[in-house]
Specification:
Elements lengths: L4 E6 L9 E5 L2 E8 L2 E6 L13 E3 L2 E3 L6 E3 L15 E2 L1 E4 L2 E5 L10
Antiparallel strand pairs: 1-10, 2-3, 3-4, 4-8, 5-6, 6-7, 9-10
The structure holds FE2/S2 (inorganic) cluster.
FE2/S2 (inorganic) cluster binds next to loops.
Length: about 110
C-alpha cells in the first residue's frame, strides 16, 4: 500500500517564516526548508501551544519563540525530554507543489 501523500499547496505560495504553516483537516503542521529539501513537524509546541513555524531555525532544529525549547526537525526529539517530542512527517516536492506523507514518522506525544 502506498503512503498517503497529501497536497499542501504550491511551493511559491507557502510563507516560510522560517516554517510554513499548513493545514491537513483540523491538524496544523509546520514545514521547514532543510538540507536542500523539506521537513514537517506538528506546528503546536507541546509546552504551551506556541506555533513552531514562528520559531528560530538553526542546525536542523527549530527553537520555539516563547520559551526556547528545541525540536529536531528530522526526529521530532525535544531537548527538554523525550516525552515532549513532536511528530514528524515526510515531505516531497511534486510539480512545484509540496506533499506531506500523512503518516507520522515517529510517535510524538498523544494528540
Ligand atoms: S510554548 Fe514552546 S517552549 Fe514554551
Amino acid at each position: 500500500m502506498s503512503p498517503p501523500w497529501v497536497d499542501v499547496g504550491a511551493l511559491a505560495d507557502l510563507k516560510f517564516t522560517p516554517g510554513a504553516p499548513v493545514q491537513i483537516g483540523s491538524h496544523w503542521l509546520a514545514i521547514f526548508p532543510i538540507d536542500g529539501g523539506y521537513a514537517a513537524i506538528d506546528n503546536r509546541c507541546p509546552h504551551a501551544s506556541a506555533p513552531l513555524c514562528d520559531g528560530w531555525l538553526r542546525d536542523g532544529k527549530v527553537a520555539c519563540f516563547l520559551h526556547g525549547w528545541e525540536f529536531d526537525l528530522r526526529t521530532g526529539a525535544c531537548d527538554v525530554g523525550a516525552e515532549w517530542s513532536v511528530k514528524t512527517y515526510a515531505v516531497r516536492e511534486h510539480g512545484g507543489r509540496l506533499q506531506v506523507c500523512w503518516q507520522a514518522q515517529n510517535h510524538g506525544p498523544a494528540t
